[in-house]
């Protein structure tokens, strides 16, 4: 049944071209970050790591959370139109399958965009003449970022399912971005979903996490994903959708 629900969600997006539209933000991130790196090479001398710090700063700290919010709002948009939530919840489909299917499909879209960003980063490095070997730790930061994306996606789906407005969840995401930056600076970012993305992609530090911090990072992400998913499923089961 879950496979059928996932197929239905993908079918709804087939002609939307949303991935193509969302690709604009990674492109902008790479252009801005690469330009900063190019004009400050006298200071930024760690090649791939310096370039990563520039492109991922804009991407993970500002653009990616907003991108996730847009995607979640869009994937819930059809259900909010013409009171389609009523049709969904009266269909022979469990609330858990509805939420998980949306989480998986949105996660796949974000994964495609993440891979696209990584490919752009590599191409930008080559165009800028970086001669050192490509650091394997970048893939670790990339995967940690993907996990944090799932965490934020589960939260944004919860919001988008409850809020009929397309823009409101995106606005909440923007607020989360600035709160997350503040919590990161005050060293309590592990406690906030939006900060976990910055930590996972090492956008500001450019350093690997210690064993203790890695355990805390993975544990908190898993807890947040389970928590937001359970709340979302519970509300689908017990609380009427605001149509």
Question: What would you say this structure looks like, in words?
Answer:
It comes from Vallitalea longa. The chain crosses the membrane at residues 20-39, 59-78, 99-122, 134-159, 171-195, 215-234. The chain is mainly alpha-helical and 243 residues long. It has one domain. Helices cover 77% and strands 0% of the residues. The protein contains 11 helices and no strands. It has helices spanning 2-13, 18-22, 24-39, 48-75, 77-80, 84-90, 95-127, 137-162, 167-185, 193-200, 211-238. Helix 7 (95-127) packs antiparallel against helix 8 (137-162). The longest helix has 33 residues, at 95-127. The two termini are 25 Å apart. The mean pLDDT is 89.
Question: How is the secondary structure organized here?
Answer:
Layout: H1 2-13, H2 18-22, H3 24-39, H4 48-75, H5 77-80, H6 84-90, H7 95-127, H8 137-162, H9 167-185, H10 193-200, H11 211-238
Helix pairs in contact: 1-7, 3-4, 3-7, 4-7, 4-8, 4-9, 4-10, 7-8, 7-11, 8-10, 8-11, 9-10, 10-11
Fill in the keyword field for this structure.
mainly alpha; 243 residues; 11 helices
Number of individual domains: 1
Query: What can be said about the biggest beta sheet?
Result: none
What is the tally of helical segments? 11
Helix percent band? over 70%
Query: Which runs of at least 5 residues are low in confidence (pLDDT < 50)?
Result: none
Q: Report the radius of gyration as a whole number of Å.
A: 19 Å
Q: Tell me how many strands there are.
A: 0
Oligomer: single chain
Which structural class is indicated by helix and strand composition? Answer: mainly alpha
Strand content: under 5%
The sequence of SSEs as H and E is HHHHHHHHHHH
Average per-residue pLDDT, rounded, comes to: 89
Q: What overall form do the CA principal axes indicate?
A: globular
Instruction: Give the N-to-C terminal Cα separation.
Output: 25 Å
Pfam family, one: ABC2_membrane_4
Protein name: Multidrug ABC transporter permease
Keywords: Membrane, Transmembrane, Transmembrane helix
